[in-house]
Protein 1
Amino acid sequence: MTTEEPTLHYAPRSRATATRVLLEELGAPHDLNVLNIRKGAHKAPAFLAINPLGKVPALSHGDTILTESVAIALYLGDLFSEAGLTPLPGDPRRGAYLRWMVFYAASFEPALMDKMCAHVPPANECAYGTFDQVIELLANQLGQAPYILGDEITVADIQWGATLEWALAFKAIPELPVFRDYATRVTSRASFQRVFKDEVRLGAEHEAAAA
Ligand SMILES: N[C@@H](CCC(=O)N[C@@H](CS)C(=O)NCC(=O)O)C(=O)O
């Protein structure tokens, strides 16, 4: 097992925002490699060697390189489980945890992107059925408790909360009270507020550097 601190390859106001917040929530010592997407740093050879797709987030940890937000969240949640945010094997919430994390990447994100691009694949052939089914399923789950797995916040809420906040802001999902309340509950946490504030600074710096 490596004793090195993980490095998050990150750009502000991107999917890497949730990963940065998660590292904070987990109290995980880490390095931040800040990429200026506006200047194309994510398509430079140094970063393409880490993620050939040139997308953030990515995580380096010793010899391990991870891409994909959800894989990174699962990895970090296990690595820093002492923070108490991870339903580990043996926890009755473990199955639901894996289900909602994989559902996020395998069904929710594709459904959201298809919707935003006005692409309607045949329901019986695509992984998620229909956008409306995905929304109904998610609204039903979030309507049952303050957090996606129940009364306590977990790693899964950092991922879902960050994305639902963004999706509501961009009107990519219906403005249902259950989504609004949940996104506010999660993103009003000090960790999110700290990162959002720093991203205003970074965003301005990056824009100025790219101008
Ligand atoms: N499936 C990937 C998606 C990563 C992704 O699309 N990242 C965006 C930022 S939100 C990106 O790096 N876009 C820059 C580009 O493709 O040029 C994940 O969940 O990590």
Protein 2
Amino acid sequence: MRSSVMPMPHSGSARPPSSVAVSASGLRKSYGDKTVLDGIDLRIPAGTVFALLGPNGAGKTTTVQILSTLVAADGGQALVAGHDVATSPDGVRAAIGVTGQFAALDDLLTAEENLLLMADLLRLGKREARARTRELLQRFDIADVAHKRAATFSGGMRRRLDIAMTLVGDPQVIFLDEPTTGLDPRSRRTMWEMVRSLVAGGTTVFLTTQYLEEADQLADRIAVLDGGRIVAEGTADELKARIPGSHVRLRFADSTAYERAAAAFPGAARDDENLVLRVAGDGGLDALRALLGRLDAAGVRAADLSVHTPDLDDVFLALTGHGTARATDTGTTDAMNTGTTATADTTGTSGPSRAQENLR
Ligand SMILES: Nc1ncnc2c1ncn2[C@@H]1O[C@H](COP(=O)(O)OP(=O)(O)OP(=O)(O)O)[C@@H](O)[C@H]1O
Ligand SMILES: [Mg+2]
């Protein structure tokens, strides 16, 4: 399978830079006596990627449904591409594409037929529909299977076709609800490339995800949704800056070495029970070299050394008091284990255990 994604020139109208694609204030939604959204504010500049991050049931899909006019809010206001979701839903619908959390393909139709059906629904002329379908089949690397039924597609192919369908109308704003859940690491990367090429073409992307790494990779800005509210908002770096910083963890084999090292690093946090010192620092090569030099000078060797860099998992835990649903899922290690820049031991360097450590 090739995984190249060609940037596609937009055939739609030019988009003014620095305009706001999505804005919302005080969005509220309850189902029965359960408050799902308890006053959500958003401001997403055009041509950027925004990631709404939250665990299962946080209200991500509900937010997407409100912004895409599929569900009415109980309160608050939202503008998408300049149209009010409550008073101008048709204007919103004409400007957006939505890829839901669960693929909305007709299994009995081929990939090409699915796309042509969408073009028909959007009332594109026959010639334009054919041209657009051909272009999207190529672009999403499904031209080879254009005449195969969607029922025979793998999860990753379905996701690609699903997003291709979203783009038939050349939307200004696209909503991708958990676009990579269930995809293997390679398909996830292909999806990331697609998102990047969409944004390079001027599209605004609103995505929801449970993968912190995904938000870190793709999003210009990230909002963390928990308990119906946005508990933090900013760039990945801004969010990371809100929690305790990087440190190097040194463990010693015996108490003599431990005490000698402690004397050499008077500022380090001590863990006498485990003979571990935590030295603040970014774990970069220069810092590590200096640290090892200092140990040498003190005449001690560490039994092991690891560098702990805060990642968005740590942020999530710090902000919400609980981890993400995915953080405990061993099947997603590819998405989760990328925050540590160097490590000499493999214990406690991933997911919630590392997050806990940073907060201790
Ligand atoms: N139509 C509905 N009727 C009743 N409750 C609903 C409805 N839609 C959503 N909810 C509830 O609202 C809450 C938020 O759901 P939502 O689907 O928005 O969460 P999510 O963040 O998308 O979760 P996930 O990660 O599992 O997709 C959940 O408790 C859900 O049960
Ligand atoms: Mg959802």
Protein 3
Amino acid sequence: MLLPNIKHPKQLMNLSVNELEDLAVQIRNFLIEKLSVTGGHLAPNLGVVELTLALHYCFDSPRDKMIFDVGHQAYVHKILTGRMDQFDTLRKYKGLCGFVKRSESEHDVWEAGHSSTSLSAAMGMAMARDLKGENNRVIAMIGDGALTGGMAFEALNHIGHEQKKLIVILNDNEMSIAPNVGAMHNYLSKIRSDRFYLRAKDEVEMVLKKIPAIGGKLAKTAEKMKDSLKYMMVPGVLFEELGFTYLGPVDGHDLNKLIDTLNQADNVDGPVLVHAVTTKGKGYRPAESDSHKWHGITPYKIESGQVLKAVGNPMYTEVFGQTLVELGEQDKRIVAVTPAMPGGSGLIPFSKKFPDRMIDVGIAEQHAATLCAAMAMEGMKPVFAVYSTFMQRAYDQIVHDICRHNANVMFAIDRAGFVGADGETHQGVYDVAFMRHIPNIVIMMPKDENELRHMMKTALDYNEGPIAYRYPRNNVRGVPMDTELVPIPIGTWEIVRPGEGYAILASGPMVQLAEEAAEQLKREGISVEVVNARFLKPLDGEMLKNLAETGTSMLVLEEVSQAGSMGSAVLEYFAEQGIHDAVVSLMGIEDRFIEHGSIPQQREEVGLTLESVCQEIRNLKTARTAELGKRSFMS
Ligand SMILES: Cc1ncc(C[n+]2csc(CCOP(=O)(O)OP(=O)(O)O)c2C)c(N)n1
């Protein structure tokens, strides 16, 4: 068995191609076994086993910089760079990260989680190398899905122009998470399948060169003819025209061919694009036959491929998806827009029912946002279904195109709050801070799934501009559901538990935590009111004034970055109103990134727990007693 002895990628150089092939089998078995217990990105990694082996065989990490787009397909790279023993901890708290992580290894040179950054990163490293007068190689591996992202096109444009020496490996498996979409995808399919294109490029160019040169007008015509023949027959001409040397398509599971091609790429003095055709999920039948489902998978039984899902309530995502179908039936103006996440965003039922009103734009959050603005301005009711974390990409479009136009776009912001095993690149904890300062937008968060449904109706009936509802990556609470959906008056909060002297203003899942804290504190003789602060913008000013006037000490409890949170908005409100004696304490997420783990562990790490909330109220009580004591002493 070779695999357990591989501690450093340099060891690969001593192996024969046959041995590398054996190693590929062992790596696949290892991944299938380990991930059956931990879960993780199985299908993407099974698809890049040979590619990663060839990469480490041909190049010299960490001197040569290897950059993995998204970074979810770097498990093989982790195995080959001495981290095999840590796979039992994959994506677990304090364990091996599911993405590239610089603190784990000197071989991890670029971190990601969001897609389409690898080409810009490669270009940056190549430019720095040249400025420093060094000569290491830079290689970026990017999937055909990630290539649909705007950043990737921006980088291609720049790289092709600058002609820096670097290698881009396009890992083309025809899949994003869902089947890939778009004109680039169609173009790549054509290259893969067209029998003309499958001819070696050199062979075609040789034939073209043999057409004799002739003078005058005739020569120009012949040149034009050659060009159009080239267009017809040479694969990858689009990349060639952009300034890349195109090599491929090459079978991404054939180690001999991959090694040859990478060596060839290394000899080119300028940017090269190696087009490798791979099968996502390669070598494990369930993953090969449904790579969408197996992109990121929970634990499973190896023999049957049966996925072991925890039984429990459905996710908020599913309630959103079902309710959108209901609303879609009532209102033909509703269109659902997804940046490459139809399944993850719960839109499959909607896409089946209303295929014409379902728009998958590829990994293109910026384009999706602007598209929504324009559709809204033409009278449609677009729902931009997006994960909080990926919405970060579309900040300018939200400001400039949606909010400034005051367009009636509905935002369905999924994965709001901690997300668990995906970790710091995916936490949905910044959207409140980067949305609430934008004029015109309304932002809501429901305390439970029933309220989510009412919020969706609120958003649909609201015709005065953009409106967002954000919901967590959690199972729903299992509350009774109303059949009739009734809009909630904009900017109104709800008292879910009466109390006196102290109030917790909470949003989303924190409302439940606040209720539990109030129950516990009641046993200690402290009465706490719980407010469902369901509008993060606009705030319920009346209620805030009332709380201040009655001398209630307030605790704002949220699972978002505290800087820029609703809590900050509450402080701003009191400052603006000249109410300087309001007692407000904030609990949110401190100013640092929170790594992977389970959601309860992440909450524990930042103190969003029952005990911390109770303690904070006790602290407020101690402070109040001290203040009262001081006042009576002074009088
Ligand atoms: C900006 C952004 N949007 C969405 C995602 C979610 N996402 C993760 S991987 C992925 C598909 C990537 O497809 P591809 O690059 O072809 O890689 P593959 O998994 O097929 O190897 C998507 C959409 C993301 N990571 N980043």
Protein 4
Amino acid sequence: MILLGVISAALMYGVAVFPVDRYLPEASTVSLPIDWIFKFCAFFSVPILVYVNGLMLYFVVRYRHRPDEPMDAVGSPIHESRLLETVWTVIPALLLIALAVVSYLVIPLYYPTGQAAASAVTMEAIGHKFYFEFRYPGLTQSVMNEMHLPVGVPVTLDITSAEETTDVATGAVIHGFWIPEFRLKQDMIPGMVVPIHFTPREIGTFRIVCSEFCGLGHSHMWGTVVVQSKPDFDRWYAQQVQAGRSAAAGVAPINLAAGNAAAGQALFAAKCTLCHNAAPFAQRKVGPGLANLFHDPAHPRLVTGKPATPDNVVDILEHGAHGDMGVMPNMQANGLTAKDIANLVAYLKTLH
Ligand SMILES: [Cu+2]
């Protein structure tokens, strides 16, 4: 018993001083209470683990079957022992009640109600197959897969999942919105908006992972959250507003002849590779591979059903498309200008 006590005490001390932050930064305000609950559970799990398994090993050896005993020898008479039954009922009950109380105190930090919801930023995160869409107030276009947030500013994030098609087999699915460094994990559920509340504590770039198996593209479904200083964030936001405006104004005629393939390649890497590979049609991410767009005997027609000509591709880039594979965003949503479209088409023509 003393040996087990020493092992327990050593491990409990280890749990108490373990620097979680060093291995997985505590990058949001909810990280702290969540890690506290985690330590609380681990702390009291240690003696249970050590005593249950330690005593079990000890009993196996101590009360093993001896050669001179009959095969049906009865062990110690503990049946209906008041003391034992009280102990193993009361201790777990107390621990579970404590856990319930602690969780009850922490959950409202996550799911805001009333006053707690007062946030400087209220925005939306929408799960798609297979990417994350973020909508900011005041932006006409969405931001895909890269969420920018100012450090130290409270955020309410309205989380849901898109219902792209009504087809049961290919339609809406549940995604998981998980930022490990924020200790924040919430299912994205079609038809239901769940607001969550937190404040980023550290400047940096962290992963966003889809934590629900949502289909064949699930492994592509990850994004980043970029936590910036307030001035950096404001600069980024101003650029987005500007991009949205010039895209909206960019319905100017598209001059394909002036397209620059090198500029188009850089744009493609920045705005399209989220959903498209520069690879054959069948190598699909969200949308089809685009490497043989203009020269694919197996796919002479575009997803719009029109022949693969530059003008028809312009039409898709300008107005988007909505077909079997999902939604190709229009030029506003992709933040493209008329010039960008000409450059992209010039680049796509060079592929095959
Ligand atoms: Cu997903």
